[in-house]
Amino acid sequence: MKVAVECKSPLLQKSLEIFLSSHLSSIKNSHIVVRDYKVLGDDRGFYISKDSDGDLIKPFSKSSLIMALQKKYKKISPKVDVHNLDILDENEMDFSILQRRIESLTKEYQDNVLKAVRAFYER
After folding, report:
1. Where does the pLDDT of residue 100 fall: very low under 50, low under 70, confident under 90, or very high at 90 and above?
2. Helix residue ranges per DSSP H, the chain
């Protein structure tokens, strides 16, 4: 699933780019275009709004966004298996989230080891 983001709100634009980093594509090559304004006659359009007329209502979580996009994508492309959308090609994989998590766990482990060594020598 390829998604493009085109919002008038810079905050929403950046948030969506972060949430959808592994699915981002240009508007020309995307299956779905996420916007915070309505565009009439656009089948690929996905409208985010505070009102009930949007495809997704604010506030939302990353998981609710992904689920709503998958539902929209299934509607647009009924032959695609939605359960396999989370599996990325090797070229599309983004390891930055994993890298930050590993760094966080390593730092936490290092702090615990240093705490144990200090406690041992302070006796």
Report:
1. confident
2. 10-19, 62-76, 96-121
